[in-house]
Amino acid sequence: MIPDSLTQAQYDTVYNFFSLVIAAQLFASIFMLVSLTRVLPRYRQAMTVAAVVCGIAAYHYFRIFDSFKAAFVTDAVGGRGDYLQVAGAGFNEGYRYVDWLLTVPLLLLELIAVLALARRVQTSLLARLIPASALMIALGYPGEISGDNGIRGLFGLLSTIPFAYILYVLFVELTRSLDRQPASVRRTISQLRLLLLLTWGVYPIAYLLPMLGLDGADAWVGKQLGYSIADILAKALYGLIIYRIARMKSFADDDSFAARELSVDEAPEVTAGAPTRSGVPAPKRAPGRGTD
Ligand SMILES: *C/C=C(C)/C=C/C=C(C)/C=C/C1=C(C)CCCC1(C)C
Fold it and tell me: Where are the stretches annotated Disordered (predicted)?
């Protein structure tokens, strides 16, 4: 339930977190797009999907931010005081669920794509993960918007069934294909899977907050912060780890690519201070650069 009023501190906290999420998603997305050529072509799909996920999330947080600003107003002179919910302009939690409905299947696609498994294995994993993830989000929504804790609990429980199934596929079935990954990558993939478990686990906890007997406004603020922090970790940080995996696998797959990316030895020599073709003196190359 959306609270009738927020204190100044509660309003500011939510406001600042939404702003932080927009910055994190937007620039993570841009970073991943400009870094595409730093991995081999076969890993670019995973990184493009990671960038799209963060882009979709940035868009929805702009909408969430606007919805929040329209939903709560203060009439205190000077703008300090309680914020009251505007009649007829409720905060729209639907943006989150539409965002998740799009991004959660894509996050799973990112993970499977970066592994570059045999096509048959890949298709079989995705054919189970994607419908399960859509079902998990769709079942959560009726509970999320209900003011009744019984309904919230029921749909939360139903949504947990596909969630448990996703974890089973990732932690039991996927493990079988991990031994075919390069040794340096296996550890990072396990870490990524653990990050997925820890961050995805925050969503059901944040969902439960309104049922734990907290004051209505505190529970709502806690839930918004929980979802916001989890979104940064599960999308932006997760995408950056996908990038790291893609880069390590690119090096493991192709020695000449690794040599080009990791060393400046093969770059044409320029004498420090001598004018280049553009007429601008070449900068002194710092010693030890290029080891990344
Ligand atoms: C970027 C957004 C992500 C990764 C969202 C993930 C969302 C979940 C794992 C949500 C799970 C839920 C339950 C397992 C039960 C209660 C209802 C949900 C939808 C919050």
Answer: 268-292
Specify if 279 maps to a domain.
Answer: no
| Domain residue limits at 126 | 5-262
Closest approach atom of ligand 1 to CA 199:
4
Helix (H) or strand (E) holding 100: helix 94-115
Q: Does residue 273 belong to any structural domain of this protein?
A: no
Phi then psi for residue 21, to 5 deg, are: -65, -40
Amino acid of residue 74? T
Query: Which CATH number belongs to the domain containing residue 39 in this structure?
Result: 1.20.1070.10
Give the count of domains, the chain.
1
CB 195 within 8 A of CB 237: yes
- Whether 282 is in a domain gets the answer no
Q: What contacts 282, CB < 8 A, 6 or more positions away?
A: 270, 271, 272, 273, 274, 275, 276
* Span 222-272, pLDDT tens digits: 999 999 999 999 999 999 999 999 999 999 999 999 999 988 655 555 555
Q: How far, in Å, are 100, 110, 181, 254, 282 from residue 116 at the CA level?
A: 24, 10, 9, 14, 41
Output the pTM of the full model: 0.86
Residue to mutate (ligand 1; options 100, 107, 130, 228; most atoms within 8 A of CB): 100
CA–CA separation, 169 vs 157, rounded Å? Answer: 19
Sequence letter at residue 286: A
